C-alpha cells in the first residue's frame, strides 16, 4: 500500500544483501518530503540520525549487546513514548522544551534489536481523542483521503505507515487508539493483553488501561514487533512475569475453531456494509460462527470514560508549571499553576480533567467511579462466558469508516462513541487486533476486530494471520 516492503520482507532482503538500509531510509525520506507537509504525521524527524544508523547497519557495525533481529528496519514512535535525549511533547504545549532523560522499555528493546527510529509521530494531545485533531501541533490527515481523519489517538503513527514515512510504528492504545487508526488507514493494529508490554516510559493517560501496541502493514509484522518488545520488565510491576509464547504463523486455521459474533456490535451498526465486509472472510472460508451476547458492551463508552477521565485527573496533576515543561511565571504560586495549566492544556484535556475530578469528588465517587469499577468486573465476567462458546470474538473495529475532518470536533459525545467497539476489550484487559477487511465501503477501509482471552496473544496473532491470508 505504501510502496515500502514489510518488516519481514525487508529483514530478509537486508540479510541476503538484496537491499541496503540506506536505500530504504532514502525512500522514506523521499516519501516524507512528498507527503508530510500535507499529512502532518510527525512531530519531530531525525532523518540524519536515521541515515547514519543505516550506514552502520549496512557496514555490520552493531553496538555491543545488539542482536540483528530488526537491524536496519525504520520504525516511527508515537510522541508519548520516551526516547532518550529527544523531545516528548505528547502533542501538548505544556511539555514544550521537555527532553526525555531515558528510553522507554519498548524503545530500549527496539534499539537493542537494531531498529532505526526515524521520528516521533503526532497524536491527539496526551492521547485523548479519536481523530488526531486535538494536537497542539495541528491535525493529522488521512493519506487515503486528505479530507478525512486518520483516527486517533495514534493517528500520526498510522498515517506515517500509510504513506510510507515508516515501515511500521508504535502507538499506544487506551480505549482503541491503536486499533481504530489502523482500521481507518487500512493497516493492522494490535493491542496486547494488559501487562504483556511494559508501560515504563509511556506517558500516563489512564494507567489501568494504557498499552503500547504496533501499527504495521501485516499481521506478521505485528507479531515480529510484539516478539521484540513484549515480556516482563522490572521497571513496570504490572507486566506479566512470563515471556510470551512462541508463535507459529503457518496461515492455517485449526480445525474446530469457533468465532463468536458479538451480537450487540453488529445490531447497533447503522451501515450494514461494514458488517458485510467484516463477516465475509469468515463466511467464505467456512469458519464456524456462533452468536454470543454481551449486553454490557453497550455501556462500555460511559464506563470507559468515567474510569479513564478519573485517572487523567490524577495523572495530569504533575503538570503544574513548576517541575518541568511549560511554565508561565506569575506573581504567586496559585496564579502560576492556573496560568501554566490554563495555557498549556487544550480544551479536550481540560474537559477530561474536570469530568474526572468531578467523578472522584466526595459525594459522587460511589455513584460514578466506583460504579464504573463494578461494571468493569461484570463485563469481564461476560467475556469469560462468551469465551466458553468461542475461541475468538468478532466485531467491527469502528462503527464507521474514517469520518471527515471537523465533523465531530464540536460534538464530544459523537467523538467518544468512536470507541464503542474498541473500549470493551480494553476494559477487560484482553488482547485484540484490527485487520483490514478485503471489501471497502465507499472506497474507504473497514476494520475487522478479533479478541482473544487474556494472555492468548500469540494464539490471536496466529489466527489473525491465517484470516489475513483468506
Helices and strands in order, then pairings?
Elements lengths: L6 H10 L4 H19 L2 E4 L1 H12 L15 E5 L26 H8 L3 E6 L33 H9 L4 E6 L5 H6 L3 E4 L19 E6 L2 H11 L28 E5 H5 L4 H14 L2 E5 L7 H16 L17 H12 L2 H14 L5 H22 L4 E5 L15 H5 L6 H5 L4 E5 L10 E5 L5 H13 L1
Parallel strand pairs: 2-3, 2-4, 7-8, 7-9
Antiparallel strand pairs: 1-3, 4-6, 5-6, 5-10, 9-11, 10-11
Helix pairs in contact: 2-3, 7-16, 10-12, 10-13
Task: Give me some keywords for this one.
single chain, 470 residues, alpha/beta, Amidase signature (AS) enzymes, 2 domains, eleven-stranded mixed sheet, globular
For the secondary structure, the number of strands is: 11
Which term fits the overall shape?
globular
pLDDT averaged over residues: 94
The figure for the number of domains is 2
The secondary-structure class comes to: alpha/beta
Q: Classify the fold: give the CATH topology of the largest domain.
A: Amidase signature (AS) enzymes
Rg, Å, rounded: 21 Å
Structure report:
By secondary structure, the protein is α/β, with parallel strands linked by helices. It folds into 2 domains: 1-296 and 381-470, Amidase signature (AS) domain (Amidase signature (AS) enzymes), CATH 3.90.1300.10; 302-366, no CATH class. Helix content is 39%, strand content 12%. The protein has helices at residues 7-16, 21-39, 47-58, 105-112, 155-163, 179-184, 219-229, 263-267, 272-285, 300-315, 333-344, 347-360, 366-387, 412-416, 423-427, 457-469, and strands at residues 42-45, 74-78, 116-121, 168-173, 188-191, 211-216, 258-262, 288-292, 392-396, 432-436, 447-451. An 11-stranded mixed sheet has the order 1-3-2-4-6-5-10-11-9-7-8, with helices on both faces. Helix 4 links the parallel strand 2 and strand 3. Helix 10 packs across helix 12 (347-360). It is globular, with a radius of gyration of 21 Å. The mean pLDDT is 94.
